[in-house]
Structure formats: structure tokens, C-alpha cells
Amino acid sequence: MSAPLPKRIIKETERLQNEPVPGISAQPHDDNARYFDVMVEGPGGSCYEGGVFNLELFLPDDYPMCPPRIRFLTRIYHPNIDRLGRICLDVLKNNWSPALQIRTILLSIQALLGAPNPEDPLNEAVAKQWKENQSEAIETAREWTKLYAQKN
Amino acid sequence: MADLDERPHKKPRFFVEDSPAHEAPRRSHSASPSATSEKAPPPAQPADRSSPPTAGEQNGFDPETFRGFAGEDVSDSTIRILQNSCGNNLEQAINVYFDGSWKTTSSVPAQRSSIRTPLALGHSATAPDVKSASSERPSTETPKPSALTLSPPKRYIGALGVTAWTTRSGIGLVKPGDVVKIERTKQQVPQKGGKGRGGFRRTQDFVVRFTNTKGDEIGRLEKDSAAWISGLIDQRVCFFEGHCIYAPERVRTNDTVYLQLRCFLLKNVFDPGNFVKPLDSNRQTTFYEAQESTDERDLRLRQIGLVKLFSEINMQPSKANEMTVKHKREGLLQAAEIAEQYDAQKEKSTPADTPEGGSSPASEEAEDGEELEQDQLDTLYKKAQSFDFNTPEAQPADTFTMDLRKYQKQALHWMLNKETSQKQDHKEQSMHPLWEEYLWPTKDAEDKDLPSVVGQDCFYLNPYSGELSLDFPVQEQNCLGGILADEMGLGKTIEMMSLIHSHTSPEYQAAAKNNSIDAVSALPRLLNNSTAIEYAPATTLVVAPMSLLAQWASEAEKASKSGSMKIMLYYGNEKSANLQTLCCAANAASAPNIIITSYGTILSEYNAVANMSGNRGSHGGLFSLEYWRIILDEAHMVKNRQSKTARACYELAATHRWVLTGTPIVNRLEDLFSLVHFLRVEPWSNFSFWKTFITTPFEKGDFMRALDVVQTVLEPLVMRRTKDMKTPDGEALVPLPPRTIDIEKVQLSDPEREVYSHIFARAKRTFNSNVEAGTLMKSYTTIFAQILRLRQSCCHPILTRNKNMVADEEDAASAADIANGLADDMDLSALLERFDADNHEGDQDASRFGAHVLRQIQNDASMECPICSEEPMEDQAVTGCWHSACKKCLLDYIDHQASKGELPKCFNCREPINAHDVFEVVRHDDEEDEDFIMAESEGKSILKSLTNTEANDPEDDELYTSTQTPPTKTPRITLRRVNQLSSAKIAALLKHLKRLRKTSRTTKSVIFSQFTSFLDLLSPALTQENITFLRFDGTMTQKHRAKVLADFAQRPTFTVLLLSLRAGGVGLNLTCAQQVFMMDPWWSWAVEAQAVDRVHRMGQTMDVRVVRFVVEGSIEEKMLRVQERKKFLASSLGMMSEEEKKVQRLEDIRELLSE
């Protein structure tokens, strides 16, 4: 990380701190400005409501040409998030655009929590459950949220 | 079965000695030719039946047989008369005898047939000297030579010696001094008009027999002489009288006998009606058929026969055309031989084979004849350019306002002469160049005087057609026009204008005179729409390529005293009502004097008339008139006689016909034919004539002879001067300011080089593999197409992908693409990706520029870049979907996606985008006024301006965006395409232009490229540099072209004109420019030079500088070398044969592909 931090990252970081998005926070590491500790609150009305999810976010060298790398640290029961916390989200993959930012990505993730998509699963088992017995799956998700995603 | 045409070898001696015995009865029944003609052909007969199945058919008319038929005792003298009058045709003689008409012909002296006294060999006889020959002289009545008043039925022309061989054996069959009859075997060719003639028999029946006076066959002539003698007998051209010179005492079969043949021309061959000219009219559709007709073949045999005969009897013309005499005989025979070979080839190959014998590559367009090499053309032109500087001059009429130079006045004199020559009496009748004059011999074979015929000391032979005549063949000058072939820039148009002014029809003069007195007659008269062609005595029709119409009109205007010429443009929508009414003789005074139209118009009206089943009159258009004069400008447009345009032009009617062209022959001798045919120059306008005397010898490789003949055609027809001609005082015809040509070497950038190398390697691979496979000539087109790509990649790599190739090359290239899979070449795709951009043209883009978009963009400018967050953006750029970012960010992102193999999409809306569709936003707030004005007059490009006034008329930007808004404080914004990867050549050009603009702000430049798609790429590059440019190419309408040319001439400021080599290669006058840039080399320098001459031509007052861009270490450099070597070759080598040409071409390619 000897190269000077691009203006874009500096600006994004500043903006994340100065104009924070409700329910979302992202804090760069002191020793690595490209590495962020992220916290996303489960959206209201969803089975993740009340949960606070920790994620890690890394901006690769060619950011913003490439999307940030991001994953859940907190365990979560979600058809589009696997056991390792990796997220299946189009804007993090093919639909990435440099016009997107950390802020918008995190908002997308929050939205994903509110609208799980079992048709495009990353976690097969969860997705199966979601499709076959949605209420049970939602119940499990609630339980997991309570179990793993409580604020300290 | 042995072919009896051939003399059998000595060894197998199986002939029965007395075989003729059982032939004899048969002969007496064979008086009727029709009866015998149905018999089986001789080859089907047993070998020993060597005597003729018929003898009495043509000659050998036996008095006894005749008496038998007549059934009464006919006196010898009567028989002699009959023999003479009927050419020894027994059948005819019988008819004549019974109908009594022989008595009326009996005044014809009979002595000719009674000369039975030969033995002296003809003075040119080639038979071996035989001592016994001349010793004996049978005494006969020696005719007293006296002048005859009528032509005898046959007239002696000479004697020759031939060898013959016997088909019988016996003692005293024939002895020296005997008169023998020369007879033909029955011809097997079916009756004329017979159906189902499936071509000719492969082996021609040439057998010529000689018989004793009783008609018994003794033997045959050797095949060599029989071959042509038979033709002459069959076609009743000659009568041969045989005299035995030497025969062995005891004759055995296959012994050699020497005969003297005395040859008489039969009277009827001189009858004009007797000669059937093959396919006399060009307009017959059969004319284009490849098959040689029976008539043509007969013609050929007759022609060969006569030429041979005249050479055998050593008959020398007493008068002949100098030019043709040199090569005549051997050439004619050669031509005949070639025709023979074609026959053979045709029979072997399928009927669908090419008419020219299948020798030319199929890829060529359907034109006749082979291409001429540059050096051959040079030779030809050099000959045609022997211009006499002392020819008289003529002064133009006083309505003509321009000053003519001396040579132009000479041209006027010549043209006036050509137009009026027929009106003068034939002061010096010159003989038709194809005819030869011969004196009738005054002594016969025995040196006795022959009777002369009153008024007939000589006769005439056309050795090209085999035509004979007793009348002097006048060189008909029925073409009241010609070819004005002055080199470009010498002022052909002006010369023509001076002619139009100076020679008007008498009808027009009369009408004009009346008109000045009686104003009422000036009122146009209505003409009942006549279906016939009307004479338009006042009108000269000028046919020119679209691009030159405006120029013609303006030059015509300039050259004429105001009001002296009514000029009318006739094309497209500007066609007025009924031309016929307008121009007919009754309205001569008010009719347009000049109608200027385009070849396209001619063609479309031609089609229209054709659809009206050829009713020209009621169409009322161009074809409804017979003009006073027609001028075809840039007449090489109709060089292909088979093209519809050419055919349409042939149909135009006029008293005087002119063609203007700087290149009467572009690359084929047939090019000239088309012009000559348009001019209706007899006999050259007949294609078979042309073919026999020009095409065939040329293809045979006898260039000099063909070109000599062409020379005779051209000489009276053509006036041609070149710019480098010097007057006797050493002055140039047209002093032009100097012209310097520099070659600028361009270095390719790395990515360009990669693409180049890729294509180069591929081309080389193709070449090498074809060398190995030995298929080089076959895959010439493929290789050629790849070289085309290579050349394009030197200009801009993206061109290699462009679909808008020069039309000529397109077919070849796409065909080759398929063959090579180049179209799916993934490697190349990857290389090109970086350059890739579909070349949308500006119109579409410009129309999408709404004012609000521009405003939006303007607003965006102050915002931060969505990609790098820079604020404001650095070099704001927008996508095709109008989303802004820094130029670099945008391009980086496109790159980034492309490198991952993804389709680049807009960062904002995810619309697919590409680098070419990225526009830079240029703010004009910090520019000098000067540049600002420049930018205002941008040409057809994507440029559009936004000022605080939004008065942008969308109609305005068809050609010029003219926002006449004065500079205000509000920054003006311009969008211009970002050329992500430009090309080295473009950069080099821009460097030159910028420097030029700095040093001389008023210089105008012309930029030529052979690739219009390259011009497409140049436009945005020029825009980017605020260089004012105009564009002229083949796709533009006439109006736009004219506007562009006018605009280019009138601009006071630095301006560039983009021209495609093709569209700009002809006719244009660009003398307002002083600088020429040639973006890419063409195969021959001549073509480039022609383009340069648009600028460096008459009227140019300044020094002209030419820069030729050539990519270093590329095929272009090698092309220069090839150009150079060709120049050198032209001077050092003579004509090249077809083989040599091929080798030469391959050498070129090899050189182009060498490392």
C-alpha cells in the first residue's frame, strides 16, 4: 500500500463518516485505509430485524474499476449468503460499475437482507429450506439473528 | 481408317492400280450437287476409294458428259463459251445451255480457256527446277491481246508451283506439259441454312485432286497447299488451271508430281453483293456470341486463302497503307491460326466456357481483351502524341470570351476541320487503310501479253476480310468528330467550348438571324409529340460524370458572352418538360445551346425508352433528339462496350460526335473500341473487325502489330497533347509552377504494429503455402485481398475491419475473408479490440444532440467524476448515452472491461458503449477568436455547439454547422469524439496541418486516400484540432458536391478538402489548393500523379507541395519500390508477354511480403 490513496477512496471514506447512512457504518482500519470494518443493521420488518451484522470490506488496487470485496463476518441464515459469509449479489459481480460506491453497495446488501432471493442461491441448503418451508426458514433466520447478531 | 487428307506413307502399297475403273460410272451420275451432298463423308469410305465421289460439281466439265446431257452434238466453241461463262460448272452450263442465255454472253472472248500452253513456271514458283518443263510448248491458238470492255468471267492473276502426289500407278498417266484439272472433293458442310449445325467438323476436308482431261483422278495436291487452295475453290474465288511440270515416266502410287497452277480470279468475286460480311452490325445480339459462325469461318478460310495465294504468286500490292503493310501477311495468318486454336479449345471445353478461350483469370470483370501493361500504354501514347506544332490555328467565334492558348487554337482548327471535312469534296481521296491495290498482270505464265480490260488496270483486296473489289475503296470519313485526348489540365473543356461557339449548324444560324428580326418567332412553338427523333440543330449535348456537371455549367457560362449561350442542366429532378419540343428545329432560336447531363441520366432514360418499346420520340427525353453535337466527357466511363451505359451512349443520335478523355485507353485496347464505336468510325466500329485486327494479334503476343493497327485507327481521330510537351522553342505547353513531392516516413505505434504484424504474418503464410502448393496464380485474389488489409492497417488498424471498403476491392476482400476465415479470426479481433469502434457517421450523432443534453453535460462539468471523484472532472467526457466522467476514467473503465473480455457498458446506465463513442467536452472559453471562427465552420462531423442561444437549426448541419452566434461570455461547449487510439499516420498528418496553419493561414490543402473509411476517421481528428475541412466523395449528391467545391474555392481561410482517390481522381479542378497529402500509396504512381494533377494543373499559380505518407518498414515502402521499378521497366523493356506479366506480378507480391 505504498501508492497514495486515490482521491476517490479518501472522499468516500470522508463521506461515510460525515454523512453516515442510518443503520450502516464503515470504518477504515488505521493501518490500512482500504480495509473497512462494516456494520449493517438488519432491515426493519425482516427476519433480520434487530440484528447487527458485521462485515469486512476491502477495496482492491483497481477499485473502482473492480468491485470491493466484501463478506459477512457474522453468521447469517440467508439463501444468498454462504457459510463463509460470501455474498451473491450482482452489483458485486457482473453488474459492478465504478459509479457505485461503498455506501451504495452496503445499501444493496441491506436490501438483500430485506429481500432474500432463493432462486439465485449461494447457500443451497438454506435456499432449499426457504423454498420448501418458507415460514420455518424465516423462523430459523430469526433465531440465528438472535443467536449471532445481537449487539454485544 | 486412314484420313485421306494425308498423303499415305510409301510403304503400305495396297492401292489397286486400276481402281478408278469402277469409279468412272459413278461420276457420270453425279451432276446434281444436292444428290451427292447427302452422301457419306469421305472418311467413312474405304481407303482405296480414293477418287472423288463427284467430279462434275464444280469444275472438270467434260465436253462428252455435257453432250450426253444435252442430248445433241454441241460444237466445241459453244462448249468453250459455256465453260467460260459457267466457270466449268457442269450443272450451270447445262442450265445456261438450255435456257439460251449463253448466247448473250458469247460476246465474251473465249480465248482464256483455250490457253492450254503452260509449262513455264510462274515467276515465283517454288517447285524444283525441272528442265523438261519449259522445253515443250504445245501449239495452241495464241490469243491476240486486246482491250476488253467487259470484265472476263475470270482473269489471270498469277501462277505458282505446287507438289502433288499420285494416288494411282501406271505408265504415262500424266506427263510433263499435260493439262490437268484441279478439282475439289465434295464439301461435306451441310447446306446453308441447314438446321442443327453443331459446330464444325474437327478435321476439315481439304482434299484437292488433279485429274486428267477425262476426269480420272491422278493424284492430289500436298496438304500444305491444298489446305488453302481448297477454300478458294469452294468459295468460288479462284479457278485453278493445272499444268504438269514433272512426273515420273512410270508413275507409282504416292509418287511426287510437280504441277504449275495458274490462278484466275473469278469475275463474281468482285460483285459487292457476293461478299457476305460476317455479322456486319454490332447491334445484332448474336454479335456477342462467342461461337464463330459458319460465315465467319468461311470468311476466315477465304481470307487465309487469298493471303496465301498472293504471297505464293508473289503478287505485291501496288499501293497499300504503309502502317499495315509491314505486319500484314504473317499477322493475318497468325490471326487465322489463333481463331483455329480457339475453335479447337472451344470444342474441347464446355460450351459455357469463356469466349476468350478461357485464358484470363475469372476474377476480372466481364470485359474483353487483356489488360495493357503500363509500358505498352506508354508506347502507344507516345506514338499518338506526335503533335505537330505547326498545325494551323483557328480563331474562335467572338461570342467566346476566353483567351485560347496557341495549342488550343490549333485544337479548335483541328476540330472544326473534323466537323466539316465531309462537306469538302474529296480532294485527296485516300485509300482505305485496310485495302491494298494490285495491278492486274499484263503477261501470263508464258510471258505472253494478256488482254487488258478498259478501266480496270487494278483491283483491290482487303486482306483482313478477304474482300475483293474493282472499285477504289475510299477511306470513309463518316465520323464528323473525334477523340480529344489532351492530357488533363490542358483545357479540353475550354477547347470544346470554343468549338461549340465557333461551329454552329446552318439551321441554327438561320434561326438566330430570323430571330433577331422577328421577335414573334422566338415564341416557342408547340410540337405535336412526334414519335420520331427530331433534329435539334441548336443543341450540343454534353454527357459528363455527375461530379463534373456543375463545373461544366460554370465553365460554359464563363466562356460565353452573356446571352450567347443557353445552358441547361438536365439531370435528376431538374429535368424540364419535353426536350423534344424544347430543342426541335422549329424552336431552334430558343432552344438550349448546351444541355449538360450525366451518364446516370442517360442510362435511366435509356431504360425508360427501352420500356416504352424503344419509342424515343414519345419519351421526349434525351433520346428523342438528334443533336447537332454530342460530347462525352471523361469518356472512359463508357470504356466497357458491354456496359449498359456504353450501350445507351451508342444510341444517342447526333451529327457530330466527340469524346473527351485523358485516357482513351485505360487498360485494354477494347477501351478504345468502345469510343470508336460510339464515334461510328467505319470499319473499326465493327467489333469482329476490331477483334481480328487488334485483339487477336495482341493476345497472340504480337503487341507491336496490334498497336500499329491501333495507331492507324487513332491517327485521324485523336488529338492528344501532354503537359510535358514542349514547343519547338522548348517552352512548355502550359507553364506550371513547380511541384515538389516529399515522402514522409511514418512510424507505427506498438499496438498498430501488432495488428500490422499479425496481418502481415497471415498474408505471408498464405503466400508461402500457395507457393508450396503451386497455386499462386489461382489464389492471386486471396493474396491480393490480404495485402489490401495490410495496406489498410498502415492507415488505421480499424480499417481492416471496416465494411466500407473501396468498392472495387470489396468483393475480392470479402471473398478472401471467407476463404481464410479471417472474418472469424479471434486473434485479430483481440488485437483490434483496442481500436474497435463502429464508425458511426456524424449525422446520426448530431441529431441526438439535443440542447438539453448539452446543458446537462454543461452542468455535469462542475460535478465530481463518478469514477475518481475528482471535482470538477478532469477533461470531462461523455458516453454515447451522455453520462459524464473524466476522459481518462471513462476510457480506463472501457479498457478494463474490454480486457476482461466483457462488453463495455456505461458506468451509469449500463448501456453498451465503446471507446469510439466517447466524446470529449471542449470548452471554448479560453480560445483565440481566430480558432473560434474556424470551429464555427466545421464540416460534416459530430460537432455541434451550444451557446446560451439555443437557436440550433437541426437542418443546418447537413454540411456545415453554422452557428453564427458571436462569442459571448458564456463558455461555448463543443463535443468531439475521442480517438482513443489514433493512428500514426493521422498524427503525422495533423502535425503537418498544424504547422502549415501556423505558417500560412490561407493555404488550402487536399487530402487523398483510397479508403473512404479512412477519410471517415480523419474527419473527427481534424475536428479535434479545429481544422476546417470539407469532404467530397462518391456518396454525395450532385448539389452537395458542387457546394463543397464552390465552398472550397471560396473560403478565404485555412481549409482542408478530404477526397477519395476514386471520386477525386477525375476531372476536378482544385487549383485553389497548394498542398496535397497522399495518405496511402496506390499501386501505380500514375494514379496518384493524376490525383496530384487536380491541384497541379492549368490555372495553378503557386508552387505545389505534395507530401506522401508512407509507413516505415511496411508494405507501403515496398509498394513505392514496386512503383519505382515499374517506371524503370517501362523504359528499359519492350512489351512483355503474358507469361512475363504473371511472373512480374508474382515478383511484386513476393517483394511486398519480403521481410
UniProtKB/TrEMBL annotation, chain A:
GO molecular function term, any single one: ATP binding
Active-site annotation: C88
Domain of life according to the entry: Eukaryota
Enzyme Commission designation: 2.3.2.23
Signal peptide boundaries: none
Keywords tagged on the record: ATP-binding, Nucleotide-binding, Transferase, Ubl conjugation pathway
Listed Pfam families: UQ_con (PF00179)
Listed transmembrane segments: none
Top EC class of this enzyme: transferase
PROSITE patterns (alphabetical): UBC_1 (PS00183), UBC_2 (PS50127)
InterPro entries the record matches: Ub_conjugating_enzyme, UBC, UBQ-conjugating_AS, UBQ-conjugating_enzyme/RWD
Span of domain UBC core: 4-150
Family: Belongs to the ubiquitin-conjugating enzyme family.
Annotated protein name in UniProt: Ubiquitin-conjugating enzyme E2 2
Protein's organism: Acrodontium crateriforme
From TrEMBL, chain B:
GO CC field: nucleus
GO biological process, one term: DNA repair
Molecular function GO labels: ATP binding; ATP-dependent activity, acting on DNA; hydrolase activity, acting on acid anhydrides, in phosphorus-containing anhydrides; nucleic acid binding; zinc ion binding
InterPro entries per the UniProt record, alphabetical: Helicase_ATP-bd (IPR014001), Helicase_C-like (IPR001650), HIRAN (IPR014905), P-loop_NTPase (IPR027417), SNF2-like_sf (IPR038718), SNF2/RAD54-like_C (IPR049730), SNF2_N (IPR000330), SNF2_RAD54_helicase_TF (IPR050628)
SMART domains: DEXDc (SM00487), HELICc (SM00490), HIRAN (SM00910)
The keyword Zinc-finger appears for this protein: yes
Keywords in alphabetical order: ATP-binding, Hydrolase, Metal-binding, Nucleotide-binding, Nucleus, Zinc, Zinc-finger
Domain Helicase ATP-binding: 400-694
Pfam annotation, one family: HIRAN
Chief subcellular location: nucleus
Chain segments carrying region Disordered: 1-70, 109-150, 342-374, 948-970
Domain called Helicase C-terminal: residue spans: 1016-1099
Regions of compositional bias (Polar residues) in chain numbering: 132-143
Domain HIRAN: start-end pairs: 157-265
Protein location: Nucleus
Top-level taxonomic group: Eukaryota
Biased composition (Basic and acidic residues): 1-26
Gene3D superfamilies documented for this protein: P-loop containing nucleotide triphosphate hydrolases (3.40.50.300), Tandem AAA-ATPase domain (3.40.50.10810), Zinc/RING finger domain, C3HC4 (zinc finger) (3.30.40.10)
Annotated family: Belongs to the SNF2/RAD54 helicase family.
PANTHER family for this protein: DNA REPAIR PROTEIN RAD5, TRANSCRIPTION TERMINATION FACTOR 2-RELATED
Protein's recorded name: DNA repair protein rad8
Annotated source species: Acrodontium crateriforme
Lineage: Eukaryota, Fungi, Dikarya, Ascomycota, Pezizomycotina
